[in-house]
Specification:
By secondary structure, this protein is an alpha/beta fold. Helix content is 59%, strand content 15%. It contains eight helices and five strands; from the N terminus they run E-H-E-H-E-H-E-H-E-H-H-H-H. A five-stranded parallel β-sheet has the order 2-1-3-4-5, with helices on both faces. The radius of gyration is 19 Å and the shape is elongated. It starts with a strand and ends with a helix.
């Protein structure tokens, strides 16, 4: 399931949205009250759904889409004039007030879209990536998300598949073990 991040400058809005989603079986990964906190969270969770209630003072929805649009689905819930000022067509918009059912339906739909966008790995590729992550975690004393991010970053920066790079890591470690 996609990681859901709720962001709003108003604590009450964050709490209401988080409770509503959780009560519908859509657990919230984290709530954010500022744009900088939201950006740190998106960088940490790597992908998912951002439910943005209103506009954060230090983060425009369009900027968020331009910076993270390949990694997250954004649902903006705001007044009509705020929705109209957004230029990025990829941002999903809902005018307030919004019904609970409509909001839950929108997040479920975005979750399905998110799942369809994720690359599917074959069983052997998945095992190779997992083994490489474990090796990196052991060698460098890092967490699983940090190891995943390191593999992902290298693969993206060098234009190779993550599984291909993971296989290289495993191959090079066999040479050092012998």
């Amino acid at each position: 399931m996609a990681r859901i991040v709720v962001a709003s400058a108003a604590e009450e809005s964050r709490n209401r949205l988080s409770q509503l989603l959780a009560s519908s079986g859509l657990p919230v990964f984290r709530c954010c009250g500022s744009g900088s906190e939201l950006r740190r969270t998106v960088n940490e969770c790597e992908d998912g759904i951002v439910v943005l209630a209103g506009v954060l003072p230090d983060c425009e929805p369009d900027e968020l889409q331009w910076d993270y649009g390949d990694r997250v689905q954004i649902l903006l819930i705001a007044r009509p004039q705020v929705l109209e000022s957004c230029e990025a067509p990829e941002i999903f918009r809902m005018p307030i007030p919004v019904s609970s059912q409509a909001l839950i339906g929108a997040v479920q739909m975005l979750s399905q879209l998110h799942q369809m966008r994720l690359p599917k790995r074959a069983g052997t590729e998945k095992k190779t990536v997992e083994l490489a992550k474990r090796l990196l975690m052991k060698r460098h004393g890092i967490t699983e998300p940090e190891a995943h991010r390191a593999l992902q970053q290298y693969a993206m920066n060098h234009g190779v598949k993550m599984a291909e790079y993971a296989a290289r890591i495993l191959q090079s470690s066999k040479g050092t073990e012998e």
